Structure formats: structure tokens, C-alpha cells
């Protein structure tokens, strides 16, 4: 299933990212608020699995902008998801959200640089990243709550809803992908 999605058009990938994000958010929220015991625990892992799949597709969408940064963003998110799975929060620091913040900052920058998405979506995603990065300090989180949470959720949800409803401008995505391939060929020829 993952291979089929990776071969999908950029528009289909964008829409799948939106669905996975919303499904993961809903399942994670249900696991944290309504479900108890094993059901809540299982819901958390289902959400993590959805976010892993979403991250792979986000990487595919943003490779034409900057392959290395897209990979770095994916790595940040994978690390955050691993910490989420371990539920490791030393001294109250929510490491998973800090890495989610780094992911959002990178993806926000890539969105801002992309020709196939509105720049405002990139700015909102970077604001989300700043909101999540505040979780590096329990004191900072307490002082900024609930604004940091609102910034994180609203910024992330804005891009993900855009991807779900509007997707990407496929013509511009293809142009940016061709330009990236051209730059890669020139770099390899120069070596």
C-alpha cells in the first residue's frame, strides 16, 4: 500500500496527507480524552502509524523544493514519533512535540519556497513549529499556554486542510521537480 501511494500523483499524495493527518489527529485526541487503558494506548499507536505514512508522503511532495531539507524534516518527524511511541518525557519536556516543531519549521520553510502551494501556508506552518518548540521547557509551556497549543494546531491544520481540499498545483509541482532534476544533473556532471 505504501509503494502504491508513493507512485501516486502529487495531487493524490497531497490529499492522502490531509486525510492521514486528520485521521491521526482525531484518533490521537480520542485516545487521550475518551479512551482508557488498552484502547487509549492502541489509539496512540494507530495515530503514530498514520503519521509515519503521512511523513513519507510529505517527503515525496517536498523533494522538488529541496531534497535534503525534506529528508531532514522527515527525520525530525520520525524521531518525534519514536519519542511519542516511547512516551518519554524527561523532566516534563515533551520531546516528541519539540521534534514535531522542528518538522513544522522545515516543512513551513519548504512550503514557503514551493511554487505549488501558497506562501501563507508556509508561514502558518512555521508559526506552528514555533508553538511546538516551546515544549522544550515546561516553564515556557506553562507561560505560553494555551497560545502555543493553538498556534501549533492551527498552523499545522491549515496546511493539512489545504492539502486535503485544494492539493497542490500539479503544473507548478512538475516544473519544480524538473528544475530540481536539472540541478541534480548539473551537480553530478560537475563532479
Describe the model:
With 191 residues, the protein is mostly helical. Helix content is 81%, strand content 0%. The chain has one domain (2-174). Helix 2 runs antiparallel to helix 3, helix 2 packs antiparallel against helix 8 (147-165) and helix 4 runs antiparallel to helix 5. The protein is globular and about 55 Å long. The mean pLDDT is 93.
Helix/strand layout:
Blueprint lengths: L1 H5 L3 H24 L3 H26 L4 H20 L8 H19 L5 H15 L4 H7 L2 H19 L4 H20 L2
Give the terminus-to-terminus CA distance.
Answer: 37 Å
- What is the count of distinct domains? 1
Q: What would you call the shape? A: globular
Rg, Å, rounded: 17 Å
Number of extended strands: 0
Strand content: under 5%
Sum this structure up briefly:
The chain is mostly helical and 191 residues long. It has one domain.
Keywords:
single chain, mainly alpha, 191 residues, globular, 9 helices, 0% strand
